[in-house]
Amino acid sequence: MTSAGVPTQRRPGLGNVVRRVLDRYLLIVYTVLAVIYLMLPVALIILFSFNNPAGKSNVVWQGFTLKYWLNPLGVDGLPEALWLSLVIALLSTAVATALGTLIALALVRYDFRIRRATNALIFLPMATPEIILGASLLTLFVSIGNEPFFPLNFVTILIAHIMFNISFVVVTVRARLSGFPRHLEEAAMDLYANEVQTFWRVTFPLILPGIIAAALLAFSLSIDDFVVTNFTSGNAQTFPMFIYAKNRVGVPVQVNVIGTIIFLVAVGAVLLTTVRGRRRR
Amino acid sequence: MGVWLKRHSWIVPYALLAPGMIWLTVFYVYPGIQMFIASFWSGTLETGFTFSLDNYTNYTAALEQFAPYYGRSIVYAAAATLLTFLIAYPLAYTIATKGGAQKNLLLFLVVAPFFTSFLLRTIAWKIILSEHGPVLGPLIALGLVPPDFRLLATPIAVISGITYNFLPFMTLPIYVAIEKVDGRLVEAAKDLYAGPWRPGGGIVGGIVGGILGGVLGVIFGWSWPVLALASAAAGAIVGWFLVSESFVRITFPLSLPGVLAGSLLTFIPAIGDYVNAEYLGNPDARMIGNVIQNKFLTQNDYPTAAALSFMLMAGVLVVVAVYARVLGTEDVTTGRL
Question: Exposed e or buried b for every residue in B324-336, given b needs 16+ CB within 10 A?
């Protein structure tokens, strides 16, 4: 900041120099280190998708190979597990997004008596350890003791995933709704649109980004869920359950390949939405 | 239909709420009650279960046998929460105040680990902490620790795994809170001659640095007093020069709701976690989650498992209730995103 011609008022003593250097570089250096720390396991997951392990366990680097990338589904049970995860994630996202959006609309738009209880019921599942969510559902299903809840299966996983996703959808959509320009709806009504038309032509397009964000969040929570699924899956095997089962004997390299692909798809989706969001603005 | 709805418009919000709320009541609230009932069961899966209040002994027996596991869960979760706070605060502060054009990219990098599988990340930590990994490999090669020194299968590994896995839950709420701080307040403080915070910054920096260095020394078997003194000196210098009065008086107090939200969002999943302890720990580092999982899924000992889960849930609910009293629930739910 100081230009050569202007005499500095104080000589830059050692303290000032130290302060300026720390102020300028320390936090930046720290942030770089923190990002490395955050990304290190991700980098290892990707790196070990190219590993060529000697035995079954894939935790020591042995050499580079592309053969698992060329055959990403070539493990018994892996395609089925992935398919199950995908179906459950899609179905639970669809149901939870619908139910959660309705709750968010009610919370932001209307006055009603049980608001405090509603808020508590939305908040509590997020503040409960996952192991409790899973364990309590398991005791429910066991105590019912017959179809379609017991033995545990596809349906019980789906019920559980919808349950824990609802709260996250409500919170996400509510955040979007709370800054909503109400005058646009009033304008539509003034121009003789009825409630249904106003909702579909004005309200819905405006909150759609919030709904999409909520759905993406729900999808990613569901497809990676391990703990709740561990308690509610029985013999049905999702992708995380497949990893967990395989970990006892050694996780196949293909799991890292699939993990890398999921990571890249997720990163791509985020980049796409931010770029589109920017263009819209 | 339209006319009827207009006349009974009070029904609309309840109709919107009903499907989701019924789902949560049936599959969240009711299972909790069912679990409480199951904690008074006796019997096995084969013979069937019978309910009797006399089975409160499920609780006493479980406590007698598994109290140390609760203790470990609390200690590990608390240690991991403290560590995530120490790591996350400077990170969140830098992103919020110095992020500039890189802000979104940095935030994205904070949550990016969530795009990979939780289990794969924890397995990756197994690689990181192994004797050939990027932490121990160089240390052993340089002769700084003995060749048979291990981090894997210790409580240290469990705590570092939990710390890593839940770090974003701490970082995001703190970031949101610091971001919301009105920059004009900080400027006003500086106009009113708020300068470096001395000697407080040096003292706090020295204490934090000293503790961290000492703990690190104890873990790696180095002479911890020397390390503690050295890092206390480093911490004191950084604190002396870097911590400003405007930060201590304005930014930090205003960011406390974010710190509390982050602590809750880290502590709750941490205390119920069993994956990190199973993958990174040894049998002496098992947490209450490992016992609950084992009792429910391997031994089918539902009564004991239900009693253990119910005590865990009650403990967490007390923490959450205190928290909600202090801050309200909206702060947490908005902080999480």
Answer: beebebebbbbbb
- The pLDDT value recorded for residue B335 is 41
CB contacts, 8 Å: B268 with chain A = 127-129
**Amino acid identity at B177:** A
Number of residues assigned to chain A: 281
Chain B residues whose CB is inside 8 A of the A128 CB are: 28, 268, 313, 316
pLDDT < 70 positions in chain A:
1-12, 277-281
- Secondary structure percentages of chain A, helix, strand, coil, to 5: 75, 0, 25
Instruction: Give the best residue of B28, B46, B102 to mutate against chain A (max A CB count within 10 A).
Output: B28
Residues of A in contact with B73 (CB under 8 A): none
Q: How many CB atoms lie within 10 A of CB A268?
A: 10
Q: Which residues of B fall within a CB distance of 8 Å from A29?
A: none
Residue B121 near residue A42, CB atoms below 8 Å:
yes
CA distance B37 to chain A (A): 9
pLDDT at position A280 is 59
**Domain assignments of chain B as residue spans, ordered by start:** 39-191+260-335, 196-243
pLDDT of res. A1: 42
Report the pLDDT value the prediction gives residue B330, as an integer from 0 to 100: 57
Chain A residue closest to B127 (CA)? A59
Contact B28 A121 (CB under 8 A): yes
The list of chain B residues with pLDDT below 70 reads: 1-2, 5, 328-337
ipTM: 0.90
What are the Cα distances from residue B64, in Å, to B216, B274, B282, B294, B304?
Answer: 33, 21, 22, 18, 12
The reply to whether the predicted model has a pTM over 0.80 is: yes
Decide which of 3.30.160.150, 1.20.1300.10, 1.10.3720.10, 1.10.340.30 is the CATH code for B39-191+260-335.
1.10.3720.10
Question: Which of B166, B15, B143, B19 lies closest to B80 in space, CA to CA?
Answer: B166
- Interface touch A45/B120, C-beta < 8 Å: yes
Provide the pLDDT for residue B329: 60
C-beta atoms of A18 and B45 within 8 A: no
- The full DSSP string for B32-90 is HHHHHHHTTEEEETTTEEEE-GGGGHHHHHHHHHHHHHHHHHHHHHHHHHHHHHHHHHH
Q: Are B22 and B267 in contact (CB under 8 A)?
A: no
Q: What pLDDT is recorded for position B2?
A: 63
Q: Which of B16, B30, B93 sits opposite A103 (nearest CB)?
A: B16
Contacting residues for B269 by C-beta, under 8 A, at least 6 apart: A129, A130, B166, B169
CATH T-level fold of A78-251: MetI-like fold (1.10.3720)
- Kindly list the domain boundaries of chain A, sorted by start residue: 14-70, 78-251
